[in-house]
Amino acid sequence: MGAVDQVTTRGRLERYGEALARDPMSASGLVREWMRTGWRALFAELRERQPIFVTPAFTVVTRFADVVEVLSHEEVFTVRAFGPRLDAALGGPFMLARDATPMNWRDKGLMQVMLAPGDAADVRELAGRIADEALDAAWPHGRIEAVHGLFRHVALGVCAKYFGFPGPDPQTLSRWTRAVVVDGFANFSGDPEIQAASVRAGAEMIAHLRDRLAERRAAVRAGQDAPDDVFARLAGTTLPAGTAVDDERIVINMAGLPLGFVESGPGAMAEAVEQLLLRPRALAQAALAAADPDPARFDRYVWEALRFNPFFKLLPRLCERDHVLAAGTPRRTVIPAGTVVLAAPASAMFDADVVAEPDEFRPDRPGHHRLFFGHGHHACLGVHPARVVVCETVRRLLLRPGVRLLPPPEGELVRSNGIFPDRFVLGLGAEGREA
Q1: pLDDT, position 149
Q2: Average pLDDT of 321-339?
Q3: Domains in the chain with CATH codes
Q4: Which of 45, 224, 287, 428 makes an SS bond possible with 9, Cβ 3.0 to 4.6 Å?
Q5: What is each CA distance from 65 to 47, 69, 261, 325, 334, in whole angstroms?
Q6: Helix (H, G, I), strand (E, B) or coil at 385
Q7: Is 139 left (phi over 0), alpha (psi -120 to 50) or beta?
Q8: pLDDT of res. 238
Q9: Which of 73, 51, 68, 24 is nearest to 375 (CA)?
Q10: Cα dist. 89→97, 201, 207 in Å?
Q11: pLDDT band, residue 405 (cuts 50/70/90)
């Protein structure tokens, strides 16, 4: 960070204090805007000057140790900040909207078995095959609109083939996931129209899954072989008496799979690719690693690139009872019950107390410094298939010669709601072919 950046950054807390004196709630809005447009500068100042940042609307937690503490205490810092919206969309209790309840533990454990770590190699091959098909189709044109033409295309293909949930069609499934996830994680003002759209989309998705489950059961009774996908595994699982999962739980848990993947997976792909393309040296090294038989050599470039612009930068929690955060340190802060806490993994991954030379691009960083999949009770249960899909899609793209950013505005990564990638046109092959 240069001298100009330091001056700009140093002024943010002072500007916030001036706004707070005039209008407390507008001051919180100012912080939200900085998080959207200048999060690295804001978080850098907060880590140094006010690492547990209290505003009238929420408290932001920026240091690695404190973020991990928040995410490790699920009975204190709960998902009640967004959980009810997911329940409303799915028409019933959903495990990701619960903390340490019997239903949460049972359904989470069941779905971890369904999303077996041993599936990763096959899922990686599937994602690569879908990616190559999309890239082959785009190659003659010398360009690809990567968000929908590649990243979401792969994610929806994995939903269809591995999860066993293609939706009525990819476009409808994509519409359902966007509506529910926008309300759950980007509707900060509680806009009732966004909430209503989420409920409508969720109801359509659940009704569709009920019909598909009935069809699958009828096919099995007719002696037809079940496909080897997550939906078939879940529908065919027999559990001991007292622990059985009824059909409604099956349907709601199946609905949760695309909700946890169709937005975050392509979002991570888009952000990682942009960061690599902005760094010619890292891009060249990543392209060489992409050809290595050991995928781990390449994958680390994806994760290091994503650290510079994670898809989900904040994880919201609600403090259920008074809690002393960072006890025994100079940061010690009492978080009152009822406080909305925004744990910031994006900031934690730049905490110099934990992450060496955080502003440098270093693919050799240890895995436990990465917080892309959360931490603790609500860490991503589909981490094994998700991370291979993200990395393999990016790898197949970078195996193509001449992948590059196009001049703005066409080549800019366009996001809706300031979060969700919606358009990213990349050049392919020899420069000038896309003209």
Answers
A1: 98
A2: 97
A3: 1-50 (no CATH), 62-165+258-427 (1.10.630.10)
A4: 45
A5: 11, 6, 27, 10, 16
A6: helix
A7: alpha
A8: 85
A9: 68
A10: 11, 7, 12
A11: very high
Q: Are 229 and 236 in contact (CB under 8 A)?
A: no
Q: Is residue 79 within 8 Å of 94, Cβ to Cβ?
A: no
**Tokens standing for residue 384:** 């094994």
Q: How far is CA 134 from the centre of its chain?
A: 23
| Residue 181 to residues 174, 206, 258, 259, 307, Cα–Cα distance (Å) | 11, 15, 10, 7, 22
Separation between Cα atoms, residue 334 and residue 36, nearest integer Å: 27
**CB–CB of 180/259 below 8 Å?**
yes
Burial pattern 112-141, b for ≥16 Cβ within 10 A else e, equals: eebbeeebbeebbebbbebbeebbeebeee
pLDDT mean across residues, the chain:
93
From CA 77, how far away is CA 41, in angstroms rounded?
26
| Lowest-confidence segment of 32-36, 64-68, 87-91, 169-173 by average pLDDT | 32-36
Question: Which is nearest to 91 in space by CA: 186, 174, 213, 201?
Answer: 201
User: What is the pairing mode between strands 340-343 and 59-61?
Assistant: parallel
Q: Which residues of 374-399 are buried (b: 16+ CB within 10 A; e: fewer)?
A: bbebbebbbbbbbbbbbbbbbbbbbb
More confidently predicted of 387 and 431: 387
Which pTM does this prediction carry? 0.94
What would the pLDDT profile of 10-21 be if each residue is shown by its tens digit?
489 999 999 999
Give residue-wise pLDDT tens across range 87-104.
Answer: 999 999 999 888 988 888
| Euclidean distance between CA atoms 142 and 207, whole angstroms | 41
DSSP-assigned letters across all residues of 388-409: HHHHHHHHHHHTSTT-EEPPTT
Segment 263-276 shows an average pLDDT of 98
Residue type for position 130? I
Q: What is the DSSP letter of 142?
A: T
